[in-house]
Amino acid sequence: MPGPIEKLRNIGIVAHIDAGKTTTTERILYYTGAIHRMGNVDDGNTETDFDEEEAKRGITIYSAAVTCKWKDCTINLIDTPGHVDFTAEVQRSLRVLDGAVVIFSAVEGVEAQSETVWRQADEYKTPRMCFINKMDRIGANFENVLEQIRKRLHGNPLPLFLPIGAEHDFEGIIDLVKNKALYFDPDSQGQSIEEKEIPEELQEMAAEYRQKLIETVAERDEAAMEEYFENGDLPEETIHRLIREATLTGELQPTFTGSSLDYIGVQPILDGVNRYLPSPLDIPPVKGINPNPKRNESTELVRHAKNDEPLAALIFKIVADKHADLCFVRVYSGVLKSGSRLLNPRTGKKEFCSQIWHIQADSREKVETDLVEAGDICGIIGPKAVATGDTLCPQQHPILLESIIFPETVISMA
Ligand code: GDP
């Protein structure tokens, strides 16, 4: 049992190659306790780059789904490839994500691949957060990247954190909601975080950013605006709620910063995923077609993310494994049970779901209950005549999930 559905997050980390997606993912898995040793991308031994060939090339090809826990949330991290040639795969994973974290390098800023992915996320209305990484590198410029996100991506990044220093002098981050400076101890691999007053020389700038932040999010809520005018401030919880609402509607993108290599700023991303990104209940119910409607029956079907609805599951990735093919599915509605016979409405054939796994990167951990609930993602073994994009559903309640078009052609980068 992954816990209540409102605490479930299906998210992806997307980035242009080299922006630091693998490093950040690795830190996330480490902080959430899914792994107990740190890999290093430069040694090719990180947890998500589990294919040997891929590790050699230093490119994340496989969209593996990894499950981890952060505080009271269960996070399914759907890995998306960063290489420019794998755009179709990015698209496939975006289709099953509820939210995304887009990583930018503070040096290179918005790059071709970030533009493509951003546009696709716009198309799918995927709520997202931004992480401006590599603040420790020569040439890092936080403001520049914010400007590029606005100009080139037409995004609306809302800084929730500011860097303290840059390049060799990058020391920590300012939490604008908390109004505190955070310093991460590299010797503890960032586990220990010291909270201090904001350095004097940055107080004015932080105050300006904080005021802008509150005004931006309070604008959409009359009661909050009134409270803000009266008290000159808002309680942290109100600010978080307003940020969440504006993130879910796509009005803005909460923006974080740090250096994942130096362990700075990764836990705030996890708190952000928890606080601001959607659960499966926050996205519209999935639509589909009844493949063989009886007379007077509508061909259009809607399935809500509820356990008591008929099962509708989508295969979004098939990974050839040593022993058997592993189909990654998103359960949009109903409950998927191991040992069940399901219909593939595209072929009209029945498929057997013999085993269900929740994946922990290269070590696959079996789901104890042998069932996966509405909203969740898992790997299944058993289906034979299936392809990416196929629906699995009960024989009595057939549904073909809608508009799942997975073009194999790579989108031009012009
Ligand atoms: P990906 O291609 O987006 O998955 O990027 P990687 O995580 O593989 O990182 C690409 C390179 O940048 C590696 O050599 C990392 O060690 C390095 N890197 C990642 N994050 C940071 C960072 O915050 N600061 C610095 N200086 N280097 C980083």
TrEMBL record:
<comment type="similarity">
    <text>Belongs to the TRAFAC class translation factor GTPase superfamily. Classic translation factor GTPase family. EF-G/EF-2 subfamily.</text>
</comment>
<keyword id="KW-0648">Protein biosynthesis</keyword>
<feature type="domain" description="Tr-type G">
    <location>
        <begin position="6"/>
        <end position="281"/>
    </location>
</feature>
<keyword id="KW-0342">GTP-binding</keyword>
<dbReference type="GO" id="GO:0032790">
    <property type="term" value="P:ribosome disassembly"/>
</dbReference>
<dbReference type="GO" id="GO:0003924">
    <property type="term" value="F:GTPase activity"/>
</dbReference>
<keyword id="KW-0251">Elongation factor</keyword>
<comment type="function">
    <text>Catalyzes the GTP-dependent ribosomal translocation step during translation elongation. During this step, the ribosome changes from the pre-translocational (PRE) to the post-translocational (POST) state as the newly formed A-site-bound peptidyl-tRNA and P-site-bound deacylated tRNA move to the P and E sites, respectively. Catalyzes the coordinated movement of the two tRNA molecules, the mRNA and conformational changes in the ribosome.</text>
</comment>
<dbReference type="GO" id="GO:0005525">
    <property type="term" value="F:GTP binding"/>
</dbReference>
<protein>
    <recommendedName>
        <fullName>Elongation factor G</fullName>
    </recommendedName>
</protein>
<keyword id="KW-0547">Nucleotide-binding</keyword>
<dbReference type="GO" id="GO:0003746">
    <property type="term" value="F:translation elongation factor activity"/>
</dbReference>
